User: Which sequence fits this backbone?
């Protein structure tokens, strides 16, 4: 059976990608469940390593077709990846789960639509009409995507890289990864890797920290040999690099491969990329690789096949520090909770302090009359700051929607788009201030403004931690110190020199870091080591990328992070006195 | 006994005579009968079908109710107790492959069953007693066949179809358990009902490792009872096996040979050495499909240019068919002619590579789930035309074909029947155009499953049709989850019947005395039926270990609460203060010494907090000292 997907780069001609699908009916099974194997290949330009992965897929498939032990059906999808692996797999999955019964698709103008054509079993007996239908095989239990990547030049063993992150930091059940890792390492002798940040592996400061930990650990070990707290330097560095990569990939919210398409349908899936350590013309090495790779795939299929229930229980929330080591939700929740816990208290203290003590004891030393204010606002003073918050949130929503309309403008450079976006955002902000009054003129107390800001990020962070924990955690690391340290620059004038300098420096540093494009620039510079000027265009591309993959990180950046940053700026630049004009008017 | 009076002795003799004459009379008119038959058939996809058919019948006599010769007593009691007029129980493992193994012959219409257990029974009782009797029946059958048929007892598990399954006067109940695993534990009680069990006769071929190695395994018990002809049980076992070839390996498509040659020894690892002594007739048939007969030419001999049979048959039967000149042929072997020295080993050897196909049902019916997520989804039922009607009725395109859909859906899959949509060849059609008759019993939460009976009229010209029904997924109470709830929940197979197509086959009867019971059943009710797949719906399942966590957590909190409460209650504050004062007056040793050294008089300490603070700093010093000593000792001892 094949599945055609058509992609229309422009209106004039149509390209087809053809997904070929084979289904093995489990001889004694009831056909309620299926295991999916996927081998992506580019049908337009087949490279030797893709041929090897197709060969691996076919050999496993033909082996399984004589297996009597199968209890779940096997689906082998060789996905035509000329338009990307993800789109090929997701269009097949979409047709599997949400087929269109109307023969003339109503939405012809959409990018990809599915239609069926033929081919089925190796038996020649089946008729063609029968082959035209889209075949199905029950509910999917798990999926395994495997492909052979480039040859690694300096490797003693063939290695396998596992990719697991799906959209918005969703992970497959850890048991699936454990099965793959166990079989690959202990049975077939592969070296198993997960994605890592290579720049961290060679960084010297990480090595210094690792040495400190190692020394500390060895001292503790001498005190009590039962305390196994020492971590060797390479282990620590590698674990940190893996963890950073795992957190980054989850925080980005973009799937790292076609397994992400399966996760959208609640199917556990993992991608394996084999990196052979031999030249692809070496026939002996190739057949031995086919044998071991096939055994690994068969082993995974057997493990999933023998399960009565699908993977369940709570091992969906974790960060990987090594292919076989992980940090579970119970551990990584604690630092985040500790970061978040002081926020409501600080907000309450700020609001409460400003209410009871009034303006007189404020460090700003306002010149206005406290009684006037008391009469004017009373305990409802916070409404003003809430209004500011609402205006800024509204602005943030508009800014987050702008790219959709900007991208409709044809034929512009990313940098141009970005500039348009920035200009429009600033214009909107000015218009909004003109309409509703700017916070500096509205006479909002900075403590109340800060309290409102902290409350809003507490809510924002709490919500985000449910949607995508990694994003919330990474964001909290920047956002929470930024919020807590923020204090009007004028108010700082009255402090001693040392605390003032520290506060000023941290304020400026955190505010720069907190601005999304700046953070992006620094992150990019750190990871790549190159500091290019075309950062604005890159930022636009990055945002477009997040938008395309409908990542929740995009929403986080624009609905939680950006308004908070703007409020911080407002707090920093707070005039600290009541606007004279207003007082005069009264 | 010798002392018995002659009158009594005469009476005894008389009564014995009377009994003997009654027995002789019963033998004369009708007696209990047992027949055993086996049908073998090669299948197009290199497999072989074996169908065992055992029939036991008991005459309708009120007196014969207690004592039986060959008829199983358990069944007779069952029929009497529950007033069953018809009952069918099937245990199936694997799926019947309608595309490869055919869908238009008596085998596929009557013996292809959905996976798991299917039970239906019609009762000869007043309507208000039927449900209660059904419940008792499920428990009895559960005990009799070592299966969890008792799960059909709950009113959520069975339904009362009116015409979609079988025409009846509301006295029929239908239930299915798709998840029931079938194994030897179900076969053994089934064999127990046979007079020779598996010790002799055709049943001795049932070598467990080979029959459970197969691709399809369906054991069925069909029971009919009436006042006029008594009780008849048909026990059938249908298996599809992959013949082992001589190397002990299975033949595969890549091996280059198309069809494996096989015999009974290859299939069952046994040969047939004689019949069951009490059986009235014992026969083995080998059926050759119509398609092969067509290819082999006109002559139907057991050895021709396509194949040769291992043993010469006793008889060759040809199907009586008025529509076609060619039809399938049966080679009959009488087992009573064979014995231990000369066992029967029917087999077929192919001379030429051959491809043939079985006649399919008019439509291939498939069912699948659409949508994802834990909230809602749709069930789709698709029909694909096999163009059978063109072969049978000619090429007229404005006819229509009737199809009856019968579907039972558990209550937690809440089907919205108004959302029924029908697409024919990619065009949406109005329901009134295609549905002649529809009967829906909506599901009731935790009480009744939903039942859909629908008579469709599909146009002949269509290639494919799809029906879709939307549903919401319900929530279950924690104790309603079955074991292994995380696998998902099953929707039992739907049944699609094509009432205009009849697959019954009639064979010429040579002599009325030894008519084959198997061929008789082939002649009976043969409306073409096909079952669809079982569906698996993933529902939201709670974390079942959560209650345990909650219990542990709650208990900890309670323990802490009660501990501190008791502690506070049993404390006596006054007593403690006095104790504290007493301790304060007791001075430490070192200050005492220092005071002595300085030559000062030891005076009573001033009232206040200073002694306690002194005490606590001292305590702290002591602790630090001990820790330092311990750490240094440890460090030194290790290095």
Assistant:
């Amino acid at each position: 059976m094949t599945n055609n997907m058509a992609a229309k780069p422009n209106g004039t001609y149509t390209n087809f990608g053809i997904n070929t699908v084979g289904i093995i009916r489990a001889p004694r099974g009831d056909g309620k469940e299926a295991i999916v194997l996927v081998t992506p290949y580019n049908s337009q330009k087949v490279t030797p390593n893709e041929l090897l992965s197709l060969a691996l897929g076919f050999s496993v498939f033909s082996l399984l077709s004589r297996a009597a032990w199968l209890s779940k059906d096997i689906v082998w999808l060789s996905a035509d990846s000329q338009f990307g692996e993800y789109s090929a797999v997701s269009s097949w999955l979409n047709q599997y789960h949400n087929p269109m019964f109307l023969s003339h698709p109503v939405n012809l103008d959409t990018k990809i639509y599915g239609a069926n054509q033929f081919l089925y079993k190796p038996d020649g007996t089946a008729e063609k009409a029968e082959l035209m239908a889209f075949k199905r095989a029950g509910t999917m239990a798990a999926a395994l995507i495997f492909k052979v990547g480039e040859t690694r030049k300096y490797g003693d063993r063939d290695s396998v890289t596992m990719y697991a992150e799906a959209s918005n930091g969703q992970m497959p059940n850890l048991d699936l990864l454990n099965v793959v890792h166990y079989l690959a390492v202990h049975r077939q002798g592969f070296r198993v890797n997960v994605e890592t940040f290579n720049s961290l592996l060679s960084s010297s400061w990480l090595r210094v920290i690792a040495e400190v930990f190692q020394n500390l650990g060895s001292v503790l070990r001498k005190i009590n040999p039962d305390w196994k707290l020492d971590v060797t330097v390479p282990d620590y560095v590698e674990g940190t690099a893996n963890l950073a990569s795992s957190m980054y990939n989850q925080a980005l919210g973009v799937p790292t491969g076609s397994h992400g398409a399966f996760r959208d349908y609640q199917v556990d899936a993992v991608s394996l990329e084999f990196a052979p350590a031999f030249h692809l013309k070496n026939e002996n090495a190739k057949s031995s690789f086919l044998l071991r790779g096939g055994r690994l795939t068969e082993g995974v299929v057997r493990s999933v096949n023998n399960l009565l229930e699908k993977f369940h229980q709570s091992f969906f929330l974790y960060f990987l520090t090594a292919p076989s080591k992980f940090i579970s939700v119970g551990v990584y929740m604690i630092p985040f909770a500790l970061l978040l816990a002081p926020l409501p208290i600080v907000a309450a203290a700020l609001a409460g302090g400003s209410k009871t003590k009034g303006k007189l004891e404020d460090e700003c030393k306002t010149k206005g009359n406290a009684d006037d204010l008391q009469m004017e606002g009373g305990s409802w003073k916070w409404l003003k700051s809430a209004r500011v918050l609402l205006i800024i949130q509204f602005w943030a929503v508009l800014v987050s929607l702008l790219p959709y309309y900007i991208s409709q403008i044809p034929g512009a450079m990313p940098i141009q788009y970005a500039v348009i976006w920035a200009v429009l955002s600033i214009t909107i902000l000015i218009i909004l201030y003109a309409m509703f009054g700017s916070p500096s003129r509205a006479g909002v107390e900075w403590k109340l403004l800060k309290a409102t800001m902290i409350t809003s990020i507490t809510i924002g962070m709490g919500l985000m931690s449910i949607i995508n924990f990694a994003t919330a955690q990474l964001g909290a690391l920047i956002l929470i110190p930024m919020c807590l340290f923020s204090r009007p620059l004028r108010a700082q004038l009255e402090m001693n020199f040392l605390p003032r300098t520290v506060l000023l420096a941290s304020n400026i540093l955190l505010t720069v870091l907190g601005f999304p494009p700046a953070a992006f620039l620094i992150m990019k510079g750190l990871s790549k080591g190159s500091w290019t000027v075309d950062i604005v265009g890159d930022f636009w591309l990055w945002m477009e990328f997040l938008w395309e993959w409908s990542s929740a990180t995009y929403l986080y950046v624009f609905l939680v992070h950006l308004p908070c940053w703007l409020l911080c700026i407002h707090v920093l630049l707070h005039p600290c006195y009541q606007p004279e004009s207003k007082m005069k008017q009264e | 006994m010798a002392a018995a009076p002659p009158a009594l002795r005469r009476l005894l003799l008389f009564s014995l005579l009377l009994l003997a004459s009654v027995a002789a009379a019963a033998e004369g008119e009708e007696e209990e009968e047992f027949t055993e038959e086996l049908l073998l058939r090669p299948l197009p996809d290199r497999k072989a079908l074996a169908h065992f058919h055992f029939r036991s019948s008991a005459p309708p006599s009120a007196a014969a109710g207690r004592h039986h010769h060959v008829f199983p007593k358990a069944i007779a009691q069952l029929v009497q107790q529950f007033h069953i007029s018809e009952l069918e129980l099937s245990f199936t493992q694997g799926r019947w492959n309608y595309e490869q193994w055919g869908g238009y012959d008596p085998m596929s219409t009557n013996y292809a069953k959905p996976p798991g257990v299917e039970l239906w029974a019609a009762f000869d009782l007043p309507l208000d007693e039927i449900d209660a009797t059904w419940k008792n029946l499920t428990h009895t059958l559960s005990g009799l066949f070592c299966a969890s048929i008792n799960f059909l007892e709950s009113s959520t598990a069975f339904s009362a179809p009116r015409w979609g399954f079988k025409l009846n006067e509301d006295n029929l109940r239908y239930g299915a358990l798709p998840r029931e695993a079938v194994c030897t534990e179900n076969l053994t009680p089934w064999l127990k009902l046979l007079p020779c069990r598996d010790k002799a006769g055709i049943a001795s071929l049932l070598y467990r490792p080979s029959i459970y190695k197969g691709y399809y395994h369906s054991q069925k018990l069909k029971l009919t009872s009436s006042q006029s002809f008594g009780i008849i049980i048909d026990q059938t076992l249908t298996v599809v096996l992959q013949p082992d070839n001589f190397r002990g390996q299975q033949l595969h498509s890549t091996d280059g040979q198309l069809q494996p040659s096989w015999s009974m020894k290859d299939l069952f690892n046994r040969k047939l050495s004689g019949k069951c002594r009490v059986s009235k007739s014992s026969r083995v048939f080998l059926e050759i499909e119509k398609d092969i007969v067509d290819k082999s030419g006109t002559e139907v001999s057991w050895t021709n240019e396509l194949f040769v049979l291992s043993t010469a048959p006793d008889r060759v039967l040809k199907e009586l068919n008025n529509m076609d000149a060619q039809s399938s042929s049966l080679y009959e072997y009488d087992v009573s002619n064979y014995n231990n020295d000369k066992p029967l080993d029917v087999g077929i050897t192919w001379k030429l590579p051959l491809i043939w196909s079985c006649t399919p049902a008019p439509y291939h019916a498939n069912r699948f789930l659409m949508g994802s997520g834990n909230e809602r989804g749709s069930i789709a039922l698709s029909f694909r035309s096999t163009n059978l009607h063109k072969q049978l009725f000619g090429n007229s395109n404005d006819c229509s074909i009737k199809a009856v859909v019968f579907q039972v859906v558990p209550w937690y899959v809440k089907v919205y029947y108004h959302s029924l949509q029908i697409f024919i060849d990619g065009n949406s059609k109005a329901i009134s155009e295609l549905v002649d008759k529809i009967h829906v019993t909506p599901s009731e939460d935790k009480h009744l499953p939903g039942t859909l009976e629908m008579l469709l009229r599909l146009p002949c010209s269509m290639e494919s049709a799809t029906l879709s029904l939307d549903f919401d997924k319900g929530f279950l109470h924690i104790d309603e989850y079955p074991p292994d709830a995380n696998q998902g929940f099953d929707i039992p197979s739907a049944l699609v019947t094509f009432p205009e197509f009849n697959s019954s086959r009639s064979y010429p009867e040579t002599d009325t005395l030894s008519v084959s019971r198997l061929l008789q059943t082939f002649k009976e009710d043969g409306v073409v039926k096909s079952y669809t797949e079982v569906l698996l719906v993933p529902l939201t399942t709670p974390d079942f270990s959560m209650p345990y966590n909650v219990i542990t957590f709650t208990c900890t909190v309670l323990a802490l609460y009660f501990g501190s409460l008791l502690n506070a209650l049993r404390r006596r504050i006054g007593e403690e203060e006095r104790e504290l004062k007493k301790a304060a007056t007791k001075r430490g040793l070192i200050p005492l010494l220092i005071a002595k050294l300085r030559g000062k008089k030891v005076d009573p300490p001033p009232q206040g907090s200073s002694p306690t603070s002194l005490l606590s700093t001292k305590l702290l010093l002591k602790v630090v000292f001990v820790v330092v000593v311990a750490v240094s000792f440890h460090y030194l001892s290790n290095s």
